[in-house]
Amino acid sequence: MTMNNVIHAPDWVPASGHQLRVTGVYSDAVRIEGVRGEVVAERLIEATDGDAGPVVCEVSGFRWMYFLLAPGEVRRHSWPLGVQQFGGRGARTVTYIGIPALDGNTWPLRWYSEPTATAPYVDPEHLRQATTLTEREARRGTA
Fold it and tell me: Which domain of life does the protein's organism represent (predicted)?
């Protein structure tokens, strides 16, 4: 996060610890596993000058990265293989995403990029560009 961005605490962010939130209500989510997710997050942060919007990281296990989009946004876009999408009207399943507090003990989750007043959600076009770029590099063996 850059020094110009003030942390924005939406009402769906818990005051302490972490809580599960239903996708499609407070946010939609795009999930990418491990190192690939970290590369996408870094590219997204770089493309947005440090104001990428909310990205949640699991610090153990598969190390999933969850990119939180505005409700209804995930199904409006096509995503490359390996990018999982949660939320949107018409989804057949209910999915819960763990949301950490902005500070304190939130293990096993942490913010990779916090929501801000100017980026309360991840911009889907910037995220699509970051995932597409990473996909191309992976096919060439340069990621």
Answer: Bacteria
pLDDT surpasses 50 at 1: no
CB 101 within 8 A of CB 13: yes
Cα torsion 115, 119, 124, 130 to 10°: value is: -80
Render pLDDT for 68-77 as a digit per residue (tens, 0 to 9): 999 999 999 9
Half-sphere exposure of 135 (CA within 13 A, CB side): 12
Give the global pTM. Answer: 0.88
The per-residue b/e assignment along 17-54, b for 16 or more CB within 10 angstroms, e otherwise, is ebbebebbebbbbbbbbeebbbbbbebbbebbeebbbb
Based on C-alpha coordinates, what's the Rg of the chain?
14
pLDDT digits (tens, 9 = 90+) for 85-106: 998 666 678 899 999 999 999 9
Joined together, the tokens standing for residue 78 give 């096509």
DSSP β-bridge partners for residue 58: 109
Block residue for tokens 């153990």: 60
Measured distance CA(99)–CA(16) in Å, rounded: 10
